[in-house]
Amino acid sequence: MRINKSKSITNWGLYPSIKTNEYIPQSIDEYKEAISSSNKLIARGNGRCYGDASFQNDVISTKKWNKFIDFDRDRGFIEVEAGVLLSDILEASVPAGYFITVTPGTKFITVGGAIASDVHGKNHHVDGCFSEHLVYFDLMIESGEIVRCSRNDNPELFWSTIGGMGLTGVILSARFLLKKIETAYIRNEAIQAKNLDEIFKLFEESESWTYTVAWLDCLQKGDSLGKSIMLRGEHATLDEVSENIKKNPLKIKKKPKLNIPFFFPNFALNPLSIKVFNWLYFNKQLKKHVKNYVDYDQFFYPLDMVHNWNRIYGKNGFIQYQFVIPKNNGLEGMREILKTIADSGNGSFLVVLKLFGESNSKAYNSFPQPGYTLALDFKVNKGLKKLIEKLDEIVERNGGRIYRTKDAMSKPSLTNYLKNVDSTKFESIQNERINRFKKQ
After folding, report:
1. Who contacts 39 (Cβ-Cβ below 8 Å, separation ≥6)?
2. Do residues 147 and 56 touch, judged by C-beta distance below 8 A?
3. Kind of pairing between the strands at 211-216 and 228-235
4. What is the pLDDT of residues 142-160, one digit of tens each?
5. How far apart, in whole angstroms, are the C-alpha atoms of residue 162 and residue 72?
6. Coil, strand, or helix at residue 168?
7. pLDDT by residue (tens digit) across 350-378?
8. 70 falls in which pLDDT band (50, 70, 90)?
9. What angle do CA 40, 44, 46 make, to 5 degrees?
10. Which 8-state DSSP code applies to residue 110?
C-alpha cells in the first residue's frame, strides 16, 4: 500500500495545517491493513471541509475510490464509490436529466464527505439534508468488516454515521436518489434588500421557492445593516427556456475558468478592499428586482469557477464561521452578530444567509436546526480569536450552534452535539480538541 509519510495537509481554509501519514489503499484488503496498523485515523476525501475536521496523525484517503457502480437512468438512483466528486456525478447525471437533490456551495466534495457532514444546500427548507435522499452506504468498521447501513439495515450505525464526521468508520460507497430535471438552467430572481428587516421579510415571503439564499454586506451599519441581495430559483422547465436553449436543454456551455496562481499578500484583503468589493457586487445589479435564467453552475457553484480562490486570503489562511440560530431569535441574534462584525473591522466578502426548515430528528448528528444560518469567511489574524469568542457568546445565548465541518476555533459547547460516535480507532484531531475541553 502506498503511504505518504509526514505529508503536510490543510483543508480548504488553509488553517490549520499538520503533517500526517496518508494511507492510500488500492483494495479492500489494504483498507483493512491501514485500519489495523494504525492506533487512530480518520478518513479524508478531497479536503474541502475547513478547520481540523479531517485531520489526524494518520489519515486514510478515499480519493482513489472514484468509480461509478450503477446509474439507474429510468428511476434516478445512482451508486458510486465514496471518493467520487459531486462534479463527476453532475457531468454524468445532468445530460441524463437528473440533478443532485441536495448540494452545498461547492461541487468539489466527495460523496463520502457529503454523508459524513450531511451537507445542506439552498433548499433545506424544502428537501432537507443530503441524507434525506440516501438509500444506503457501505461502511468499514474497526474490525475491518464491511457493514451495509440503511434505514432498515443497521439503522443505528446508519443514523450515527450521517453527519458523524467520519468517527464511526470509513464510508466505501453509497446509493442515493437524484432529482429529475428538464433543463440545466435555473429560473432565477435576484432582489436587493436595503437592510436586515427587508431580507428577513423576503425569506418569509419566499418559503414556497425551492432554492433561496442571500449574500450580505457585513460591513454595513445603521439603517443599512444587513444590506443584501436575495437569490431564489427553480429548475427551469422546457416550456420556460428560450428556443435556443431548447435545442439542447441539458447542456451548458463550457466557460473559461479563472485561476488564482499565487497566494495574495496578507495586506491585500483588508476592510477597504472588502468595502470596494461589496459595493461593486451590490451595484452590479442595476435594478432592485432582476429575473433571468442562469445555468446551474452559475447559480449553485459561482466560486468553483475560480480555481484556488482560497489563496486570496494569503498563506495564513482563513476560517469559515457558520452558525444557526433558532427562527424566533433569528432577526435579533443576526443583528447583534452583524453589528459585532462591523465594529471589529474583520470583514468578509463571502457572507451567505440561508433559512433552514424542519430537521429530521432521526438524523441527530446533522447540523441544521429550524432557523437562520449565516456563513462567513474570516482571514486568520491576531484579532480573530477574540472576535470568534464574541460571536460564539452571541450564538450560544441565542440557542444556536456551530457547523462542525467548518469549525476551527469555536467554543466546544457549540460543536459538542454528536452522539454515538465514540470510537478508539476513528478519531479526528478536531474531535479530540472538542472532547478535551468538554472534560475540563
Report:
1. 58, 425
2. no
3. antiparallel
4. 999 999 999 999 999 999 9
5. 24
6. coil
7. 899 999 999 999 999 999 999 999 999 99
8. very high
9. 165
10. B
